[in-house]
Amino acid sequence: MTTPATTESEVSRLEQIQEYLDQDAWREAAKLLKKLQPAEVAHVLEALPLNQRQILWDLLDTEQDGETLMELTENVRNELIQNMDQNDIVAATEHMDVDDLADFIQELPSDVTKEVMESLSEQDRRRLETVLSYPEDTAGGLMNTDTVTVRPEVTLDVVLRYLRQLGENVPRDTDQLFVTNREDKYLGTLRLADLVTHDPQETVAEVMSLGVQPFNAMTSDADVARRFEQYDLLSAPVVNDNGQLVGRITVDDVVDLIREEGEHHFMGSAGLSEDEDMFAPVMESSKRRALWLGINLLTAFLASWVIGHFESTLDRIVALAVLMPIVASMGGVGGTQTLTLAIR
């Protein structure tokens, strides 16, 4: 997962935290961190040099660790994980959603993965194993298994009392409930707006919508993103090959997916990774960029060799030498514009 573009408020917060760190004012820095959202904390961490990044990470509350880790680029996240002990890693996973935990746990060493699995409740462990059983680039790998299901024969009044009973355990970003039969086969959806505006004595079957088609768990994430865009979905059900409901996908997961794909293409056009760390060690950055820079150097030598064959012509017509940098500049600008359109 990646952080959003920098805003003026984020710049001021970054400067303020930088000032606190320079003055060794740890308590003030910790207070400011508590006011930030995980995505904002991740942006601040990525904008700091390695030594200050580690200091700031150590000041962060354990409750913020999990969500903040998922907002960081892969390289920065792995660097921080290397300096964490197993107990801290396990504690960080306690506040993660199952879909985020599925992505995170695959990056951990096997011994840490085992400890994280053992720390989960039996229900959460089964949910995590369900997500991990699907490829990462499919609807099954993208989904969250935390759903609220209702039967078609019950009344809306029963559903309302059920939701009140769940209280704070209602999954985050719930905009609709999923209607299933006794075999857990998906039948339709019950929007919360319909639930609170219809007669409480009506049954779910009378009010539910049949318009939301479920994703098969093996549907590619690209197709998932395309359908979310076409139909302006906020959430959608995911079913297995038997038509049984196994989870749901929410729009925030799809937005993250689209952003990651966009950054992958944009950074890839310059021979970089979307997880590139500006403060990575020189040798590590050199290894990643060596191939691209090497190709660029070879083409520059090739251009020089070609120009060398026309040395006598350039001696006779000096105007050609004047035009050479103009041609090169215009070619570069044209290539950049074409590349931008292609990426878009």
Which helices and strands, and how do they pair?
Layout lengths: L7 H15 L3 H9 L3 H9 L3 H10 L2 H10 L2 H9 L3 H8 L4 H8 L4 H10 L2 H11 L6 H4 L6 E2 L5 H11 L9 E5 L5 E6 H6 L6 H4 L7 E2 L4 H11 L3 E5 L5 E6 H18 L13 H27 L2 H6 L1 H26 L1
Helix pairs in contact: 1-2, 3-5, 5-7, 7-9, 8-10, 15-16
Name its key features.
344 residues; MgtE N-terminal fold; CBS-domain; 3-stranded mixed β-sheet; 19 helices; 62% helix; disordered N terminus
Give a verbal description of the structure.
This protein is mainly alpha-helical. The chain folds into three domains: 8-139, MgtE N-terminal fold, CATH 1.25.60; 149-261, CBS-domain; 273-343, no CATH class. The protein contains 19 helices and six strands. The protein has helices spanning 8-22, 26-34, 38-46, 50-59, 62-71, 74-82, 86-93, 98-105, 110-119, 122-132, 139-142, 156-166, 192-197, 204-207, 221-231, 251-268, 282-308, 311-316, 318-343; strands spanning 149-150, 176-180, 186-191, 215-216, 235-239, 245-250. The strands form two sheets. Strands 1-2-3 form a three-stranded mixed beta sheet. The protein has a three-stranded mixed beta sheet with strand order 4-5-6. Strand 4, helix 15 (221-231) and strand 5 form a beta-alpha-beta unit. Helix 3 (38-46) crosses helix 5 (62-71). The two termini are 21 Å apart. The model is unreliable at 1-6 (pLDDT under 50).
